[in-house]
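Table 4 source record.
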Amino acid sequence: MLVVMRKPADFEFLAALGFSRILPPEGSTPQAILASPILTQVERAMMKPVEIYTREGCPYTRALKHKLEHDGLSYVAYDVLKDPTRMQEMLALNGQRREVPTIVWPDRGVEVGFHGT
C-alpha cells in the first residue's frame, strides 16, 4: 500500500499501528517512494495493480511490462484492438488519444506513453 505522508502526525499514526518502514528519504516524491526499497515485497503485492491499455506487439508496452516486473509491481494489460469497451475506456481516460500504452497508476493518475523511466 502506498501511503503519502503529508505531516509528522501521519508518521506517528502509522508507527503506532506497527509500521516500521514508513520514513521516506528527505524530499522524496510519491514516485520515488514507490520505486524505493521503502516498500516491502508484501506491500507491493497489496497495491492495486497498474492498468495498461495497449495493443499486441507494442514495443513500448513490452518495455513497460519488463520495468514493472523488475520493480515487483503487478499490472493488468488490456488489448484495446481486441476489446472495444477497453478502447472506449482508454479514450475517456487519456483525452481521446489513440496512443498506447496508456498507463493508469494507482493513486497517481494517467500517463500516455512510456519512455523507459
